[in-house]
């Protein structure tokens, strides 16, 4: 596909219903699951669904949050192209005050203070932002329901960031820049409502970690199981933290050869050798997250910047490499990849 804004819109109109249906199937699918927790005493373990009665599906907690975000974003942006009745019923059944109370209590337990930190935290705050921006009766109700959990996670993030001496520069869940980027919209909404604590914490941490970075060695990307580009996640975050002119100068220091589509490794889509392997399948997500970052950075730089053409071309090549894997590709891709397709196509 060509990749201008109109083409992306048309592509997503065609696929929005499939993406929402896939998201709802994942949200409701309890098994298999990966609990991602430490057990420190003997006894009968509660089930994953007992601990997480809203976000029990989609194999793991963060993927389930991503699927709620995918469904909500597409229901909001494409009301005439998505299965509204079925999706709303499924979300209403699981996203309840009682269930979110249990989810929030889990995150207040000191034993689980690192659970889904920071990746799942960022996606949960992105979901809250998506609901808050939806002028719809169900959207407003779900936004209110989710607030006890998003409030706990926002406070946990504010507490944790000053303790994080060094950022995680990785292509998987621990990546610091992507988590801060994911939380940005909710932080901005809170700041606009007069509560700037989260916004200030993200800004302080992002600038402390990344403002002085130069000559990033992106030629060493990707690693074998990346679904994020450490270089591009950082650059996209900085595009949100700095004024456009300052960002353009920072980017020239950080990745100085973008106009010539270098380093080559950053501009070459990753090859997925086995989509049924949960780790190797991550590379399909890398292609889509890279494409989204390329577009976001290009949008901030503006059409006259000499780097924009290379960034836009790279976005198209990366998107075409993996958009076909969102559905019909097996569970190790289908339980999460639609989120990155939606992120990219709704830029």
In terms of topology, how is this protein built?
Layout: H1 5-28, H2 48-51, H3 61-77, H4 84-94, H5 97-108, H6 119-132, H7 137-160, H8 176-192, H9 197-210, H10 230-241, H11 244-254, H12 264-267, H13 282-301, H14 308-322, H15 331-334, H16 337-345
Structure description:
There is one protein chain. With 347 residues, this protein is mainly alpha-helical. 61% of the residues lie in helices and 0% in strands. The longest helix has 24 residues, at 5-28. The mean pLDDT is 97. 47% of the residues are buried. The chain has a single domain (5-35, 52-345), classed as Glycosyltransferase (Alpha/alpha barrel). It is built from 16 helices and no strands. α10 packs parallel to α13 (282-301).
How many H/I helices?
16
Report the span from N to C terminus: 16 Å
Shape: globular
The arrangement of helices and strands along the chain is HHHHHHHHHHHHHHHH
Q: Round the Cα radius of gyration to an integer and report it.
A: 19 Å
**Structural class, judged by helices and strands?**
mainly alpha
The overall pLDDT average reads 97
CATH uppermost class: Mainly Alpha
Count of folded domains: 1
Helix content: 55-70%
Keywords:
mainly alpha, globular, 61% helix, single chain, Glycosyltransferase, 347 residues
Could you give a quick summary of the protein structure above?
The protein is an all-alpha fold and 347 residues long. It has 16 helices and no strands.
């Amino acid at each position: 596909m060509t990749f201008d804004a109109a083409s992306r819109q048309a592509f997503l109109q065609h696929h929005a219903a499939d993406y929402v249906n896939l998201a709802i199937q994942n949200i409701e699918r309890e098994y298999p699951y990966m609990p991602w927790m430490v057990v420190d005493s003997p006894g009968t373990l509660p089930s994953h669904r007992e601990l997480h009665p809203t976000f029990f599906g989609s194999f793991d907690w963060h993927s389930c949050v991503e699927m709620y975000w995918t469904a909500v974003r597409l229901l909001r942006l494409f009301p005439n192209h998505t299965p509204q009745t079925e999706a709303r019923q499924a979300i209403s059944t699981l996203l309840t005050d009682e269930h979110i109370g249990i989810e929030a209590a889990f995150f207040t337990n000191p034993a689980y203070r690192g659970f889904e930190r920071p990746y799942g935290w960022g996606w949960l705050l992105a979901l809250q932002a998506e609901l808050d921006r939806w002028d719809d009766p169900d959207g407003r109700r779900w936004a209110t329901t989710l607030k006890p959990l998003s409030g706990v996670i926002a406070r946990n993030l504010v507490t944790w960031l000053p303790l994080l001496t060094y950022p995680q520069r990785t292509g998987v869940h621990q990546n610091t820049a992507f988590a801060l980027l994911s939380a940005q919209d909710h932080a901005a909404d809170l700041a606009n409502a007069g509560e700037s604590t989260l916004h200030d914490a993200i800004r302080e941490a992002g600038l402390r970690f990344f403002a002085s970075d130069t000559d990033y060695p992106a030629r060493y990307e990707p690693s074998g199981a990346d679904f994020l580009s450490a270089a591009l996640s950082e650059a996209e975050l900085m595009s949100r933290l700095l004024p456009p002119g300052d960002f353009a100068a920072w980017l020239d220091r950080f990745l100085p050869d973008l106009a010539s589509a270098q380093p080559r490794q950053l501009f070459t889509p990753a090859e997925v050798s086995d989509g049924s392997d949960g780790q190797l399948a991550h590379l399909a997500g890398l292609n889509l997250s890279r494409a989204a970052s390329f577009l976001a950075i290009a949008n901030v730089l503006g059409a006259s910047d000499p780097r924009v053409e290379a960034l836009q071309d790279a976005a198209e090549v990366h998107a075409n490499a993996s958009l076909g894997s969102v559905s019909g590709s097996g569970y190790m891709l289908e339980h999460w990849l639609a989120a990155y397709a939606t992120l990219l196509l709704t830029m």
